[in-house]
């Protein structure tokens, strides 16, 4: 599967932004989808994940209550709605996919496919 992330940009603290990740290829509904982010000088970190439907959602503590992940299997897309953005949310955001979680849903090595990243900058 190929992933294309979009929707990043420059926003002010407190504002909202929605990221999209469009997937090409077959059997999108079989993939576990996730968002990770990487700030300058820091390691890539887990943000959110959804299993095969939007009924099973996982979030990092730092974004819980502010970010919402969702998927639309008919449109082969996954979204990350981000609200109450903080300067600490500034990072390049990556969508990721896998059909089998090997090392835990929060671990980047569990994911086989990655999008190119979209930059989110939150000014104070």
Summary, kept brief:
With 124 residues, the chain is an all-beta fold.
Name the descriptors.
124 residues; mainly beta; 7-stranded mixed beta sheet; 4-stranded antiparallel beta sheet; 11 strands; 0% helix
User: Beta-strand percentage?
Assistant: over 45%
| Number of β-strand runs | 11
Helical amount among residues, as a percent range?
Answer: under 10%
Query: Pairing-aware structural class of the strands and helices?
Result: mainly beta
Uncertain spans: none
**Alpha carbon gyration radius:** 13 Å
Overall geometry: globular
Largest β sheet strand count, sense and barrel closure = 7 strands, mixed
**What is the averaged pLDDT score?**
95
Number of helices: 0
Distance between the termini: 37 Å
Describe this structure in words.
β4 (32-38) and β5 form a beta hairpin. The chain has strands at 2-6, 9-12, 17-24, 32-38, 45-50, 57-59, 67-72, 77-82, 91-98, 113-114, 118-123. Strands 2, 4, 5, 6, 9, 10 and 11 form a seven-stranded mixed beta sheet that branches. A four-stranded antiparallel beta sheet has the order 1-3-8-7, with no helix packed on it. The chain is globular, with a radius of gyration of 13 Å. With 124 residues, the protein is mainly β.
């Amino acid at each position: 599967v190929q992933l294309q992330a979009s929707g990043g940009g420059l926003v002010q603290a407190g504002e909202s932004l929605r990221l999209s990740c469009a997937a090409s290829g077959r059997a999108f509904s079989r993939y576990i989808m996730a968002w990770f982010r990487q700030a300058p000088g820091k390691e890539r970190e887990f943000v959110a994940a959804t299993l095969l439907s939007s009924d099973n959602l996982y979030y990092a503590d730092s974004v819980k209550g502010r970010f919402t992940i969702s998927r639309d299997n008919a449109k082969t897309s996954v979204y990350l709605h981000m609200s109450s953005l903080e300067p600490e949310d500034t990072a390049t955001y990556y969508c990721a996919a896998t059909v089998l979680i090997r090392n835990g849903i929060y671990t980047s090595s569990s994911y086989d496919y990655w999008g190119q990243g979209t930059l989110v900058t939150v000014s104070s």
